[in-house]
Amino acid sequence: MIDTKIFNDTKHAFVLKSDKDLKRSLFLFTMMNIPFFVPISTRATNLALDLKLPIDSLVRATIFEQFCGGESQDECMPLVKKMYAENVYSVLDYSVEGKETEEEFDKAANSKIEIIEYASKSKEIPFAVAKPTSLGRFAIWEKVTANDVLSEEEQQEWDSIKFRFEKVCQAAYDNDTKLLIDAEDTWMQDAADNLAEDMMRKFNKEKAIIFNTLQCYRWDRLSYTKAIHERAQRDGFKLGFKTVRGAYMEKENARAKSKGYLTPICEDKEATDVNFNAVMCYCIDNIDQISQFIGTHNEVSTYMALQLMSQKDISLSDDRIWFGQLYGMSDHISFNIGRINSNAIKLLPFGPIKDVIPYLIRRAQENSSVRGQTGRELALLREEKQRRAGQFVKRVE
């Protein structure tokens, strides 16, 4: 049985945070908890960028150090090693916004391969990550998903996308590094799902190397999972899934309403939770065929997965099940499940400060909009501050 209070230990949750780090985190989450702060600071940051004001030092000392590992892979490594010492792995994510030219897409593919090769040399980094639209224009993915006829030039672009996609997956296979393929908007996702399935069929013969992402705020994902599972059993390949709730709910619902089609999104947060847990448990129930990267900041889902593993006598360190959270958030989950030798892993973004600002803005926006997220982080940080203050008083006495 898993201890029901596993996530209550703030000493282990914040073991890598100095008192200074703790104060910075408290300040940031306090500010993000103020309703008007994130919109105003976002506008101010964008204005400063437009005016080319020197804001790098301010950004680095605040939100960058909270949510990013460094500006380069090498700069991330001291943090990667510190987390690994606490049994928390890392996956490096070059969080720079993509471009729109074929040359830039080729460069992005080569960059992904370099990260894969870098990860393969580090036991602390078992995964790499790739975003489909970093390898080709969104409009092409969208047209292929819609089964629209491509022009000759568009067909060449699509062929190039497929070439880059397979090239990155081949590198993951050659370097024995698991690859997480991100999910994006539903109106381009079928094309990405189909390519990911082709890559799993090719490279996942013996074990899961290629992992596609299941956005479980989509009400169709359980039926999709069962259908692809049947195909995998028939065709003799393993499945890898990164299971998440999803990040584009408002955008998806707005598009469905404006275009007059049934929204692909669950009706509310509760329905999403039920769907996520059903997909997650289905994958665990079929662990011989399906490996899973459980990407969640939800304590209930994490505990449910750990309990199911315990009931099925699945080792907590089984390489087919991972628990992932974003760096800078939910340390009480990551470090406490790492403490019981489960496979905890942090998604660690990196890149030049000015280039990752769009990512950092999204992190701040999502933290301020997700119900209870910022409040929970604040409560845990305050609890740890009080615990340390109590320890200091005891030492003085």
TrEMBL record:
GO molecular function, one term: FAD binding
All copies of domain Proline dehydrogenase, residue ranges: 80-374
Biological processes per GO annotation: L-proline catabolic process to L-glutamate
Transmembrane parts of this sequence: none
SUPFAM superfamilies assigned to the protein according to its UniProt record, in alphabetical order: FAD-linked oxidoreductase (SSF51730)
Superkingdom as given in the UniProt entry: Bacteria
Keywords attached to this entry: Oxidoreductase
Protein name: L-proline dehydrogenase
Organism of origin: Psychroflexus torquis (strain ATCC 700755 / CIP 106069 / ACAM 623)
